[in-house]
Amino acid sequence: MSATSIVLRGRSVVGGVAEGEALVTRQTISGWGGVNALQGTIIETRHELRGVSFAGKILVFPGAKGSSGWSVVFHTARLAGVAPLALIFNEMTTKVALGAVVMRVPSVTDFDRDPLSVIETGDWVRVDGDRGVVEVRKA
Amino acid sequence: MQLTDAEKAMLEGGAGPARQKAMQLLVRYAEALGAERFVDTTNVAGVPGSTTPFLSNYYKAEGSSYEVIFSRFDLDSDEVVEVPRMSVHACHLQGGVDPENWRTLGASPLAAELSRSSEIAAAEHGIRILKTCTPYLAGNVPARGEHCAWMESSAVVYCNSVLGARTNTEGRESTSAAMLTGKIPDWGFHREEYRRGSHLIRIDVPVETVMDWGMLGYFVGDAVGERIPVLSGALASPELIHHKHFGAAAASSGGVEMYHLVGMTPEAATLEQAFGGRTPPERLIYGTSERQRTYEILNARGTNTHVDYVMLGCPHAALEQVRQACELLAGRRISANCNLWIFTSRAVRGVADREGYTRIIREAGGHLLTDTCSAIGQAIPPGTKVVALDSAKQAHYLPAIMGIEAWFGSTQDCIDAALTGIWRGRPP
């Protein structure tokens, strides 16, 4: 990436490297009942991303909430080919940890700066899950 | 991670390929969490090996057997392994289909057959077929301090808060792996320091009924998110069904996995104990305006007062709730324009049959169903446009999942809607 990119450093959750366009929400995401796993879209009634697809995006969000079916929903999204490319999140929970593991996508948390205040939807993001480093190129 | 010799042996394959795959998954999961070790767990509740038409079709090339689904999906393994009997007390939570009344639910013969065959295979693997989101009402009541690995957010919050046992909100893959290994990451609610309160919520309005407790839970989950609320103020000691609806709601609007009621729940004899001696970091109030706002949010998806479906039993109805519904229904007949489905566990249904409750509901034109619910089974009566619910959790999920309108109110409001076909619920 270019010399003007912003670098965030965090802790590796799941290894691997991915890059793509960011999809950012300041609201936590409910898996089962909040996501259509076969289409890769958010369906929760009051969610700001309702109707939006995360397939092939770098998903930037505060964390997981709701049902214990979180991992199954995102695991199923992986099988259906509509999973995000990578996860960037703040709040560690068993839901998001297990979901990231079975989705098998690079995932990073515990950043030195809040990714939600740095990354905006449409930014180009490279996630290095092995080193826990995220590079952001503003759109 | 620090692994014991026995854990290392499992990871290296000394206890067979399935336990090796299970340990590999648990190590990946523990490292994702940042856990340093495992705890031994003796009580695991999950949905091991359950087969849906999607999974059955996805793994069709390999035969879609129980072992294929369990290996590939539950253990996230890249190869199919032989699955032995489970090592620890393991039970199956709710499923997607009532084995007797699947036609009423509109399930396909394929879904019913997949559910039946995976249930037989699960039982052969030593898994208890409780098929409920309320295992604590169906014979699985962990002791205080017992390390568990449970799925189902409403059961998790009950396990931690009411029983004082210890579990995180586990997922299908981690519970299936724990059933084989008896291990789960030592993280979160397994650790004493994690179980202390984060928010003090003062209750300024009466909270007495299932509806009241559901609304309070929905407000609290929205307010504290993933944290641990401590409730104090003018609260009468809740009954089991109030805890059930409060916790389920708080785990739906937020991610509440544990709460304390000062002087009532096991780890909150005093305010000091609930907060581990710290000053409460956050303070909130639940008064008339908060209650009114919560009622409006829960009814935001209701405009048409012509109700064509009433669903009770989320989380699965306790016997007491089945009895209450029967008292309201006895000798009456529900509207020809409305359906009434009440969901419960097979354990409660067995008693309801003996008490005559099942017959009373049937004679009124309703159905007492088991194993699933409208949200989990994605099953509503044909043509449903407007549902009435007494569960804040179901009101949170069902309209989004099925694309229908929903009213939220008391059990009495709901039965009244079933009898008249009209919603007449009012805010408290």
Taking all Cα atoms into account, the compactness measure Rg of chain B is: 22 Å
In total, the number of strands of chain B is: 15
**Which structural class do you get from the secondary structure elements of chain A?**
alpha/beta
According to CATH, what is the topology of the largest domain in chain B?
A: Aconitase, domain 3
Number of contiguous helices of chain B: 17
Strand order of the largest sheet of chain A: 1-12-11-3-7-9-10-2
Instruction: From the 3D structure, determine the CATH topology of chain A.
Output: Glucose Oxidase, domain 1
Strand order of the largest sheet of chain B: 13-12-11-14-15
Distance between the termini of chain A: 13 Å
Distance between the termini of chain B: 52 Å
Determine the strand fraction of chain A and express it as a percent band: 25-35%
Specify the CATH architecture of chain A.
Answer: 3-Layer(bba) Sandwich
**What's the overall average pLDDT of chain A, rounded?**
95
**Mind telling me which CATH architecture of the largest domain in chain B this is?**
2-Layer Sandwich
Give the overall form of chain A. globular
Number of strands of chain A: 12
Structural class of chain B: alpha/beta
Which H/E pattern describes the elements of chain A?
Answer: EEEEEEEEHEHEHEE
Unreliable stretches of chain B = none
What's the CATH class label of the largest domain in chain B? Alpha Beta
Overall description:
The complex is a heterodimer of chains A (139) and B (428). With 139 residues, chain A is an alpha/beta fold. In chain A, 17% of the residues lie in helices and 32% in strands. Chain A has a single domain (6-137), classed as Phosphohistidine domain (Glucose Oxidase, domain 1, 3-Layer(bba) Sandwich), CATH 3.50.30. In chain A, the strands form 3 sheets. Chain A has an 8-stranded mixed beta sheet. In chain A, α1 packs parallel to α2. The longest helix of chain A has 10 residues, at 70-79. Chain A is globular and about 40 Å long. Chain B has 3 domains: 5-192, Aconitase, domain 3 (2-Layer Sandwich); 196-297, no CATH class; 300-420, Aconitase, domain 3 (2-Layer Sandwich), CATH 3.30.499.
